[in-house]
């Protein structure tokens, strides 16, 4: 295929001069790193030169993504902890820059670009002046839109789905007798911290609650499939893939977002609705997808007409089951006397809910921008009650789901 032939993917092994044993991960030297533009600023994209000085050489790969145009560099592995991408000299030359851990063994840098670019050179050499370490230099230049070559894209919302003949309602837990499997998805992670209020990060708070919920569900006899267990970044569609690989019967994504004070407060549950017109829901959906785009994930093309038709057909079974699950959980939360949003069940176009083959909900445990919600999220008793209510909701939903499945086969 043409895009494979033209693919700007660079795989660089550690050079011979750096084969000595290394005892720690590479780290970035920001003082000796920079982003520089060539020529005068005439309001058009200019050639850019990125130089990263690192404590030791590492293999890396380079490619581009679109929507918006981005340069992505995966390293194996740089420890970006404690280094602020926005502190890089020349950072103001590009719309956005992020870096951090991507997945175990790999780190990622994503640079949003002012337009389509192509890779001119990619070099890893000894650090300047005889210093220890290595210098990674990437030169990129503006190109016309028709010459912009990306890594390629599939219908990301449909990646790793079963074959069409198998997109029937998941039947395993209704017939095999094995425990129900729940995919627990703590939102954000790694270089995507999610919502931030002072020193509080959504990714960390959700990981902590996910661990408590996992323990509660396990004690209740359920099996848990986690999408992440540490502070690492997992792309949206990979979270769905992990759930499928674990044969999950239900997918629960956990979040605690931030909106302008007074605009939103209280626990709520979301199911998929691409036509949701609630202002807060739209803002949250845009921010979630934007975070993933800036983290090097290509969602472009995921919503074309063919994808929508296929997913709508599959959702004829899973969407009502997702909505039923949300109602059971809200019922249990009410019984426990836990305060919720005035509209506890809502729809939104969150990409993490696109999976058409697994009933999926997003639980907004509260908003970090609301003082009451923040207090709840840090209250062990509130967290325990919420986890137990969710577990009871899962159990009630599973029984009802099995009964409905039996009726539908008659």
From TrEMBL:
Which InterPro entries did the record assign? AMIN_dom (IPR021731), MurNAc-LAA_cat (IPR002508), N-acetylmuramoyl_amidase_3 (IPR050695)
The catalytic activity of this protein is classed by the Enzyme Commission as 3.5.1.28
Q: Which SMART domains match?
A: Ami_3 (SM00646)
**Any idea which UniProt keywords this protein has?**
Hydrolase, Signal
- All copies of domain MurNAc-LAA, residue ranges: 240-395
Q: Which cellular component appears as one GO term in the record?
A: outer membrane-bounded periplasmic space
Q: What is a GO molecular function of this protein?
A: N-acetylmuramoyl-L-alanine amidase activity
Signal peptide stretch: 1-18
Q: Which domain of life is it from?
A: Bacteria
Write down the PANTHER family for this protein, in alphabetical order. N-ACETYLMURAMOYL-L-ALANINE AMIDASE, N-ACETYLMURAMOYL-L-ALANINE AMIDASE AMIC
Q: What is this protein called?
A: N-acetylmuramoyl-L-alanine amidase
